[in-house]
Amino acid sequence: MFRNQYDTDVTTWSPAGRLHQVEYAMEGVKQGSAAVGLKCKTHVVLASVNKASSELSSYQKKLFKIDENIGVAMAGIIADGRVLCKFMRSECIYHQFVFEAPLPVSRLVVQVADKAQVCTQRSWKRPYGVGLLVAGLDEAGPHLYYNCPSGNYYEYYAFAIGSRSQAAKTYLERRFETFKDCSRDELIRHALLAVKESLQDEELKSTNCGIAVVGADEDFHILDGETLQSFIDTLEDNKAEAKEAAPEDPASTSGGGEAGPSAGAAEEPPAEATPMDM
Amino acid sequence: MAVLVAKRTSADVEMAHGFKEHATWSPYENNGGTCVAIAGSDYCIVAADTRLSLGYSILTRGHSKLFKLSDTAVMASSGFQADVRTLQKNLEARQKGYYHQHGKPMSCPAMAQLLSNTLYYKRFFPYYSFNVLGGLDTEGKGCVYTYDAVGSYERTGYSTQGSGAELIMPILDNQLKSASPLLYPPRETATPLTEQEALEIVKDTFASATERQIYTGDGLEIVVINKDGIHKEYLDLKKD
Predict the structure, then answer these.
(1) Tens of pLDDT along B78-114?
(2) What ipTM was reported for this prediction?
(3) Which keywords does this Swiss-Prot/TrEMBL entry list (chain A) (predicted)?
(4) Is residue B90 within 8 Å of B41, Cβ to Cβ?
(5) Which residues of chain B have a CB within 8 Å of the CB of A93?
(6) Domain holding A85: CATH number?
(7) pLDDT for B180
(8) Would residue A257 count as lying in a domain?
(9) Residues 112-151 of A with CB under 8 A from B
(10) Which listed residue, of A248, A254, B46, B207, carries a Cα 20 to 30 Å from B240's Cα?
């Protein structure tokens, strides 16, 4: 993506029919730390990689509750995300007040998308620099949406955004068909493993990641440190046992990541039979 | 305390028959009902009957006048049901916004102030709603706040509002009179009763009010708020 003479303004088309400013905004999302979302028949799980600007500071919060049944994970300019969060919250409250029913997720994402589109067609504005993974439950079931700075929105079985999200996406792509029959805890484990792919060399701790869950019998909430750490520890146990079970464990992390879930699946009644890609 | 009554005003029109008439349409109706709240040292009881009336008719025997605002605050309201419902929805929306902004639910005293402000906001077209708010304050002690229709409010140890208020208040005064805030040294405003004793008083007062009052009866809904959460109870009252 190189600088060119058509990218100064969001309201300027390039001769190739592109809006460069909007594309640059989407680049901004790719620079943010990763966020992952996945869903099963009954629950939706969001996971985030939390970065701290220095050792002295706290980790950036990226998971936010919008309503009892809806929450978001964001990647990119979190300040922009916070403002969108406020908007989403007030829309949910308004809908509940007027219709005495929770706002369906699909309607909410359309409202957000429309708001984002406005910023791509006004010369005095700039696009929102944040990608939102919207997880929610409504009468139609569990949903996971991705809201783009361009004003587009997509529904997903599972998705990852932000930096090094391709690693997480690869993990998800291989397994997403099995997710719908997963239990809540299995789904959380998958989310953590996907996030682990994005962390690569860094160790997964409850301080540098976050998990949030929403389900039919469970309001959207962010898991607290202790619960999160116990899930992470369970991952480690599975991985340690997998290492013992497969002695020709390759040195590469992607191989290690593969060993974890496959061996884990072998211990619990296997919902999947993913071959170990070496 | 403000009272809403129809008055002779300059809206009276001189008619051909010689005597004046005034418009008879009123935006308000009174759906009746009585509410009571009693605060204890670590609990609060909020109760209301379940009858909804209109004139001499009964609209329904099973309508709840209680509204949970948070885990530590329950509001009971009687009066014009449409205004009551709108007031409840309004407060619920504000409470959600507060929770998102501050990361914690509103405390009962905060809600008390919000209710007062919300009522006064419509000072010149009031919510026809007579409220008592009961719950636990920030220290976990029981608190009761009592209101008039335009938001004048006070924290007390017990209160009652609605059609049966004139019958019930003297009984509560007799049983629970809390110390005057003018006393020095200051005395506890919370009543030194146990939860069970307070519950008995609530049940007795409603039974008594039901006997002599046409707008009170059918059923009694009681909610007890304490550190273990909110516990609901329902009893029948006389249906005549």
Answers:
(1) 999 999 999 999 999 999 999 999 999 999 999 999 9
(2) 0.85
(3) Cytoplasm, Nucleus, Proteasome
(4) no
(5) 93, 96-97
(6) 3.60.20.10
(7) 66
(8) no
(9) none
(10) B46
